[in-house]
Design a protein that fits this description.
The chain is an all-alpha fold. Helices cover 75% and strands 0% of the residues.
């Protein structure tokens, strides 16, 4: 319980620092927000009244804590461009981004884990080696190139999937595939490398000497030990996907977080951009926090190692798998 509490405190303190840096950065940017809202033809009295409404006449520290109080109550300010609450705009955009992210994660996990196991299982086959090269190729190809290729195949030639706008689940298939082909290839690479490293361990040789086939060893013993490095990668991929793919959402004209970021930058909508920055930071921290929790669930020895390290016992070596420890005995 102490391990989880410490992780939660670290999460909150980091989020507070990110919020402080985000607020300070946008306060130091040149320009008068009141003038940006009213326009260059506004009178001085109107500008002063707007500054008072925006609390720009108060000290920086008081403005920060006032803004932070609004963050906890769900009030991130008013967008300059849309004249709507920033929280309302992010909430609406997040619905589409979350739908795209969930579908992308399903494709990513399914293709990444399956292909990683398949490549490791038949790694000595020449045909599978060729497929591994193609998998490596998808890692290097930018997502917008993949998107254009999929549009050419499924929209132009086959005319079975839409490529512009949001019309339900059917509209998300091509964007999800565009992202997951690359992210799934990355995850597949990590799964393959982890399994190949585990195959060199002593407990694998012990299991083989007992008559277990390589397939049984992989699915009964190796796969769980290979999850931790893959979970780290999956956590980063999840944060990136829920952050909104700016390129993909613009290519397919999806009204999500990525497109909202583009609009806020082009229109210099600082309240909206500030809220989006805080959202992206919070999403990244949340995914990292979830990865740490999953670490401790999959391998409870992670909690013990980190607890001993924090108590001043020095840096400890990475724990071996239970099978390796048994083999050493």
């Amino acid at each position: 319980m102490k391990f989880y509490f410490k992780k939660f405190i670290d999460f909150l303190s980091t989020l507070f620092l990110v919020a402080a840096v985000t607020f300070l950065t946008f306060q130091l940017l040149p320009g008068n927000p009141a003038l940006a809202i009213l326009g260059p033809e506004a009178e001085q009295a109107q500008i002063e009244a707007m500054e008072e409404t925006l609390e720009l006449n108060k000290p920086l520290v008081l403005r920060f804590f006032s803004w932070l109080k609004g963050v906890f109550s769900g009030n991130l300010g008013i967008s300059y461009k849309y004249n709507e609450k920033v929280s309302f705009l992010i909430k609406n955009a997040l619905k589409n981004t979350a739908s795209l992210a969930i579908l992308t994660l399903i494709f990513t996990v399914a293709s990444g884990v399956f292909s990683g196991i398949f490549f490791a299982r038949f790694r000595k086959n020449k045909f599978v080696s060729g497929l591994t090269f193609i998998n490596q190729l998808w890692i290097s190809v930018p997502t917008f190139c993949t998107a254009l290729l999929l549009i050419l195949i499924f929209t132009v030639f086959l005319n079975i999937l839409p490529s512009v706008g949001f019309f339900g689940l059917k509209s998300l298939i091509l964007p999800a595939l565009s992202i997951s082909l690359g992210s799934g290839a990355i995850l597949s690479r990590y799964v393959l490398t982890s399994i190949k490293n585990e195959l060199k361990q002593d407990y694998v040789r012990t299991a083989k000497s007992k008559g277990l086939s390589e397939k049984q060893i992989i699915f009964r013993h190796i796969l769980k030990n290979s999850l931790i490095p893959s979970i780290t990668t999956l956590g980063l991929i999840t944060a990136e996907i829920f952050g909104g793919s700016i390129i993909i959402e613009n290519v397919f004209s999806l009204p999500g977080i990525g497109r909202l970021i583009t609009t806020s930058i082009s229109s210099r909508d600082f309240p909206l951009l500030q809220g989006l920055t805080l959202y992206l930071a919070g999403m990244t921290l949340t995914c990292n926090f979830a990865v740490d929790i999953l670490y401790s669930v999959i391998d409870p020895r992670v909690r013990q190692i980190r607890r001993k390290s924090s108590s001043g016992s020095g840096i400890l070596p990475e724990p071996k798998s239970p099978q390796a420890r048994d083999a050493a005995l």
